[in-house]
Amino acid sequence: MPIRYVFVYLLYLCVMREGKVEYMAKENISVLMDEKRVFTPSKESVENTNVKQWMEKHNIKTLDELYKKGGDWQWFWDEISKDLVEWYRPYKKVVEWNPPWVKWFVGAEYNIVHDALDKHVKTWRKNKVAFIYEGEPGEVKKYTYNDLYIEVNKMANALKKLGVKKGDRVGIYLPMVPELPIAMLACAKIGAVHSVVFSGFSALAFRDRVNDCEAKVVFTCDSFYRRGKKVQLKKQADEAVENAPSVKHVIVCKRTGDTVSWNEGRDIWWDDAIKDMPKECETEHLDANDPLFFLYTSGTTGKPKGIIHAHGGYAVGTSYTLKWVFDMKEEDIWWCAADIGWITGHSYIVYAPLILGATSVLYEGAPDWPQPDRWWDIIERYGVTLLYTSPTSIRSFMRQGEEWPDKHDLSTLRLLGSVGEPINPEAWMWYYKVIGKEHCQIMDTWWQTETGHFVISPLPLTPLKPGSATRPLPGLSAEVFNEEGKPIQNAGGNLVLTHPWPGMLRGIYKNPDRYQETYWSKFDNTYLAGDVTRKDSDGFFWIQGRADDVLNVSGHRIGNSEVESALVSHPLVAEAAVIGKPHEIKGESIASFVVLRKGTTPSEELKKQLREHVGKEMGKIARPDEIWFVNDVPKTRSGKIMRRVIRAKAMGNDVGDTSTLANPEAVDGLSKGQ
Ligand code: PRX
Description:
There is one protein chain. By secondary structure, the protein is an alpha/beta fold. The protein has 23 helices and 29 strands. The strands form 8 sheets. The chain has a 7-stranded mixed β-sheet, with helices on both faces. The protein is globular. The termini are far apart. About 50% of the residues are buried. Residues about 5-30 have low confidence and may be disordered. The protein binds adenosine-5'-monophosphate-propyl ester (PRX). Adenosine-5'-monophosphate-propyl ester binds next to α14, β20, β23 and β24.
């Protein structure tokens, strides 16, 4: 090619690039929040997708037609389940709905472990890698489906030997090590119910949960790595079990080799428990509606709720959503960068990917250890194609700067996901541009511990609006109700789900009244999600935050996260937490704790600017009355900003147990704010 053409081409690229940069720079939050601003998926992201194939098979031409088809939800789930799971005995009825109690795939005999493991080892997938495990210090271990199958069988046999039977509860207090999914699957295999407690929770929190479900056996490990330090988990487990009379045995997995205290007769090393155990173990044939696990989640009261999930419906709902939303294909490398201790990890690290026969990354440690590019390095090394994370992580990466991801080849990525909190359009754009290089759809998935799987989420072919989780998926139905239970549009209201769904919780353990009261008492036969949401004129949902985290300023309802999003949209702000304080005249006033971007000097002038910025973005009513510049804001290990703790601290009240925070030191840091 003549040199002048090369030159002209380079010039063209520069102009294009410049154009884009300028376009991005001009982009401000009000433009991004604009409901009319739509990102249409590229042709490549639509072609050959799982959902497109399903549409072709059913002669469905448009997205609207697809959603309509999903409206016939009993037909839809009947049809969908055929592609995903194998029953030991087929069901007689798709659903039995006696509000608020539901049964799915009634009459089926089933066990989720059949789909997660047993069926794969009879096929070529036997030697496919199920998990690529990477420890924080850097060691890597790969588990094929057959490896997992054998480990699970051995542990299932060991549990049986310890007297664990169908219906018994088993507590699991393990970090992100392969033994965690193995322990879960071993329980499920024999029909025992697992109750995983996040390893970042305190001994006290673990004890309360173990006592609530009366676990017979618990799993833990000696210690594990977090940011180069060791967390002594066995010590915490000992403290918990001391006052947990139901626990007869503690199975201890060796993670670091640390010396631990030992209770002879009660404690058993993992390796000793499985030694001499047969490599085969028959999978218990259960009723499809038998419980698979309990997972405790916080409610408005101090006592966590033991959310119950059942085998059959959960298997169908989780695998369907992963297959359609993330378009999971045989060759994908999937990375759900959550912790298995939360519902995200249960559904999208353990069960759904295994049912689909996927290869997943399992990473033990902190995202910024030893350097802020650990994640990007992992993506490059394993060729991750699908990444699923949280807005908080995205915002922390934004704060660290583009130079870290820019050091790595992220070109294998084809879809990106977000979960756990509303994603502010600023973070959305950064994720889209810096990580996805403007060619990956952003899957903003709304769901809860209670829903078991995604409910409101885009599909690869759904047009996107940054900050909106788009629409309920086919087969699922959501609405926004006013206080009178009437559907409303273009105003904040109660997010509700109007018919049952397969992964729906089956109750709160030992507390049917609380189940009825929390979710089903506000509106007839309608599930109350507890989130404030707005549905726009196109039927897109904009989740604004928990109803219990909503401010009422002079009678105006303002989502804490909306104000936070407005603050974070300022170029000098990295993170923000907003709380309400009682106010004599306005009912509540808004106090905000702001983390500035690296190198920014705090000043009174900047406070003024930020107030004005929020005023401009949201209206004067939303301008914070107080702004405090702090180094960090308290967060849970799953990345949620702990407004409750911030509020208590700001009000001079007892902040309660802070041991579950990722950064407890941030609590004291709040009072040093300026
Ligand atoms: O407020 C919503 C928020 O997280 C809550 C559920 O929390 P949890 O049960 O811990 O499960 C988190 C992981 C599924 C919801 O009531 N939430 C979750 N996803 C989103 C979200 N808020 C906005 N957008 C989301 N995509």
